[in-house]
Design goal:
The structure holds 2 protein chains of 2 kinds. By secondary structure, chain A is α/β, with parallel strands linked by helices. Helices cover 38% and strands 15% of the residues of chain A. Classes of the chains: A alpha/beta, B mainly alpha.
Chain lengths: 176, 103
Amino acid sequence: MFKNQKLKNMTEVKETPLKKVMIIVAKANIEDVYAGLIMANGAVMEGIEAKLFFTFFGLDAITKKQMNKLHTATVGNPGMRMPNGWAFPTLLGAIPGVEAGVSAMMKKQMDELDVPPVDEFLDMITAGGGEIYACKMAADMFKLTKDDLCEHVKAIITVGDLYAMSGGDGTQIIFT
Amino acid sequence: MAEKTFAGKTVEVTAEGYLVNKSDWSKEVAAEMAKEDGIELTDKHYEVLDYLREQEASGASLTIRKVGKSGIVDIKGLYELFPGGPLKLSSKYAGIAKPASCV
């Protein structure tokens, strides 16, 4: 009897609530960037601390010149479909202007769901206490300085700094 | 469904504390719900609650972006009014359903 009780106690799962998320965005596609933004915004709206770390091509999302001009890939994207559900021919996606058109359409559809443009989304996240960081190595590689990045960026940091911020119970690192 | 007593009135609430019947709502009920979470409702809070109730009645889906553009309070202010749950808590005190949007 005692033994069984002990076994029962050992298998009981104790849940610890999520307290902090570190979200890494490494790509510049609309969907990759928005996945990170929506998760970060969703976190702060639930009272969970959120820090976003942009690296490699993800830096486009916080670079003044690029942030509101993100595209989705119309070539090499098996999820792309025509509005009627047919497969989207790769060759069609390669025609100049098609990617811009598809991207504009995607942004319009998101706007209808009240999903804001990137700069406004960053406003919302930081208003809720979320923090935005850029990766030092990627910034160096693309020759970007703090002046090239939007005002929401708190600092350009190293991966070591990122890990140093990731301490504490209930912290998760999410790579989108 | 659970039952709770707010302002001397017994009301049905969901497991998360949202009112089951919108008609049970009153300013006093809202104030006591907020008090449970340690929030003292001010006129500004009530302006937000009224806005949410109107929007919900018109069938609109609610987002913090919409509240931020309502002219009542900006998003930062909304977080200050309802710490840790700008839309979740405000919807609860407004007596409407838990928001089902991701933004």
